[in-house]
């Protein structure tokens, strides 16, 4: 066990450090995150209005211009912007989008570490170490921990709840108190953020009841009532205010829209087994965790009670939830800490028997090697590939850097893809009103996100813009529509985005755009040199010329009206 004591502190730092690394390398956001990130922006830059509320919110806040299909909650944005405030007081110029994401990421990291600490008390240090080892090598959890999705606001709370119901050796009164706190947390998270947690709450409650850890009258009803009062109290008061509709419970509205009216299926459907066959393996990443670790934990008599205790409520949740035809991996991310913990039970068993037989020695090696491989794959392949997925943000930053900023006003059209791949209000530059109070900012920027196709076919529409950021196809439309007006546009820059993997045969030259950009930006030019030299060496001596690299293709065009 001596080795484990040394590894432990590094693994404790690894989870928050990796989550931060993912924010640094991929600081931009996609369309799914946009509601919460725009809400954080609006609260931070406009403040919360206290008088003339409806008109002020309508004039300043993004959600009145782009309300989306269903209202979403402001609770998470309010918490993150409040926690961001002290840092902004210290340094007004801090990157606020980065700051808010970092706070969310670190709070999710703390929840994961708390879960690991519960595992150590319940099942021993070796299980906790394997858990951290597996968790740090999973791509999705590390990448999404800092992303402002409702699921990731709920994830920290559900992970804490799961920690509280771990079978730690505790006095019965303490253990019941923890179960009540867990059920209360899940209720709050379900009411405020994600309605699917009601089902997760249901399977966990029934299981705890069946195990005799809670009683209906003494625990379930009081924690349920407390959760409902806190959850509803928060969401209804906060969201009725921000949406200026009373009474508003956004998750109920979303649940009615998606589940009862079946609208969710419009986003696509998957077969029943999708979560088991596709989503969960993808989330766990390392195949040995579910092909070896989990089955072994279930088969071995010494780990079976712990494994079934962890698995039953989570697998019941996923099985029942699989009847909802619209499926996304993020709807079941809450079970990942538990499934990872079961794999860790198995891995810990293998590890502790490695001296006893050849098969366990081989399996131990395979476990270590596959985890290292997953870690390398998620940090050095999946992360750079994903970071190249935000052409909208890169296009807007490029435009801000290159535009003629001696003009008093610049008007920009942002196409659909740009808005979906990284453009947020945090990246936009101030409009005239704000510029007058800023120092030295002389250009007033304005941005337009019109989606109406008919409007976009009228020549006068494009006349109002100095620049457009559009997909190459739409660029052609802009040219042909404007021609009638006698207006001319020139290409200013082409922005590329990730488009898959390219396999190189012997003799093909490597391009290495993504690698060059990521290494050059985050480590320095010398690392690009080092990378290219070692790549060529490996190709020459080891792979006989074969290689694979990330491929980029033009995604967006910045065009300037002349
Ligand atoms: C209320 O706010 C709107 C938008 O900011 C503004 O146009 C209007 O003049 C305000 N009305 C009053 C009475 O302050």
Automatic annotation (TrEMBL):
InterPro entries recorded: GPI_mannosylTrfase
Pathway: Protein modification; protein glycosylation
Recorded GO MF terms: dol-P-Man:Man(7)GlcNAc(2)-PP-Dol alpha-1,6-mannosyltransferase activity
Keyword Nucleotide-binding: no
Transmembrane segments: 7-28, 98-116, 152-171, 183-210, 216-236, 279-299, 306-325, 331-351, 358-383
GO CC terms: endoplasmic reticulum membrane
Catalysis: reaction(s): an alpha-D-Man-(1->2)-alpha-D-Man-(1->2)-alpha-D-Man-(1->3)-[alpha-D-Man-(1->2)-alpha-D-Man-(1->3)-alpha-D-Man-(1->6)]-beta-D-Man-(1->4)-beta-D-GlcNAc-(1->4)-alpha-D-GlcNAc-diphospho-di-trans,poly-cis-dolichol + a di-trans,poly-cis-dolichyl beta-D-mannosyl phosphate = an alpha-D-Man-(1->2)-alpha-D-Man-(1->2)-alpha-D-Man-(1->3)-[alpha-D-Man-(1->2)-alpha-D-Man-(1->3)-[alpha-D-Man-(1->6)]-alpha-D-Man-(1->6)]-beta-D-Man-(1->4)-beta-D-GlcNAc-(1->4)-alpha-D-GlcNAc-diphospho-di-trans,poly-cis-dolichol + a di-trans,poly-cis-dolichyl phosphate + H(+)
EC identifiers of the protein: 2.4.1.-
Membrane topology recorded in Swiss-Prot or TrEMBL: Multi-pass membrane protein
Entry keywords, A to Z: Endoplasmic reticulum, Glycosyltransferase, Membrane, Transferase, Transmembrane, Transmembrane helix
Role description: Mannosyltransferase that operates in the biosynthetic pathway of dolichol-linked oligosaccharides, the glycan precursors employed in protein asparagine (N)-glycosylation. The assembly of dolichol-linked oligosaccharides begins on the cytosolic side of the endoplasmic reticulum membrane and finishes in its lumen. The sequential addition of sugars to dolichol pyrophosphate produces dolichol-linked oligosaccharides containing fourteen sugars, including two GlcNAcs, nine mannoses and three glucoses.
The family this protein is said to belong to: Belongs to the glycosyltransferase 22 family.
Protein name: Mannosyltransferase
Gene it is expressed from: ALG12
């Amino acid at each position: 066990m001596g080795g484990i004591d040394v590894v432990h502190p590094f693994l404790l730092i690894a989870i928050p450090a990796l989550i931060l690394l993912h924010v640094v390398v991929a600081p931009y956001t996609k369309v799914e995150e946009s509601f919460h990130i725009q809400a954080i922006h609006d609260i931070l830059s406009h403040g919360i209005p206290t008088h003339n509320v409806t008109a002020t919110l309508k004039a300043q806040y993004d959600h009145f211009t782009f309300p989306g299909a269903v209202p979403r909650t402001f609770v998470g944005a309010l918490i993150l912007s409040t926690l961001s405030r002290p840092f902004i007081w210290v340094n007004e110029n801090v990157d606020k989008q980065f700051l808010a994401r970092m706070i969310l990421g670190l709070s999710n990291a703390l929840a994961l570490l708390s879960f690991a600490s519960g595992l150590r008390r319940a099942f021993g240090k070796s299980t906790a170490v394997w858990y951290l080892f597996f968790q740090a090598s999973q791509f999705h959890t590390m990448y999404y921990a800092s992303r402002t999705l409702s699921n990731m606001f709920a994830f920290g709370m559900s992970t804490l709840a799961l920690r509280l119901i771990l079978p730690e050796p505790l006095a019965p009164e303490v253990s019941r108190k923890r179960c009540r706190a867990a059920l209360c947390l899940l209720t709050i998270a379900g009411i405020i953020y994600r309605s699917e947690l009601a089902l997760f709450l249901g399977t966990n409650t029934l299981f705890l009841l069946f195990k005799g850890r809670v009683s209906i009258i003494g625990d379930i009803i009081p924690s349920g009532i407390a959760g409902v009062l806190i959850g509803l109290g928060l969401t209804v008061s906060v969201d009725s205010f921000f949406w200026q509709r009373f009474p508003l419970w956004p998750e109920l509205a979303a649940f009615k829209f998606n589940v009862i009216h079946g609208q969710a299926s419009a986003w696509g459907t998957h077969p029943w087994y999708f979560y088991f066959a596709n989503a969960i393996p993808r989330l766990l990443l390392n195949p040995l965790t579910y092909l070896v670790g989990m089955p072994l934990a279930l088969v071995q008599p010494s780990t079976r009670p712990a494994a079934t205790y962890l698995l039953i409520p989570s697998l019941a949740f996923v099985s029942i939830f699989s009847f909802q035809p619209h499926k996304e991996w993020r709807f079941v991310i809450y079970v990942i800490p538990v499934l990872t913990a079961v794999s860790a039970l198995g891995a810990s068993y293998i590890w502790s028997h490695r001296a006893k037989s050849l098969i366990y020695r081989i399996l131990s090696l395979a476990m270590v090697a596959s985890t290292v491989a997953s870690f390398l794959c998620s940090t050095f392949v999946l992360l750079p590939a994903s970071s190249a997925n935000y052409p909208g943000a890169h296009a807007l930053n490029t435009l801000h850097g290159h535009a003629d900023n001696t003009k008093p006003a610049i008007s920009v059209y942002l196409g659909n893809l740009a808005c979906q791949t990284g453009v947020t209000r945090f990246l936009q530059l101030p409009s005239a009103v704000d510029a007058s109070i800023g120092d030295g900012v002389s250009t007033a920027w304005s941005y337009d996100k019109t989606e109406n196709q008919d409007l976009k076919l009228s020549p006068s529409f494009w006349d109002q813009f100095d620049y457009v950021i559009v997909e190459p196809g739409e660029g052609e439309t802009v040219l042909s529509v404007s021609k009638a007006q006698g207006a001319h546009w020139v290409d200013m820059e082409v922005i590329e985005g990730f488009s898959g993997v390219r396999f190189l045969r012997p003799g093909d030259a490597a391009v290495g755009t993504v690698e060059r950009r990521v290494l050059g930006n985050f480590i320095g030019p010398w690392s690009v040199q080092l990378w290219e030299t070692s790549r060529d060496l490996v190709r020459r001596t080891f792979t006989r010329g074969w290689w694979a690299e990330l491929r980029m293709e033009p995604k967006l065009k910045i065009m300037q009206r002349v």
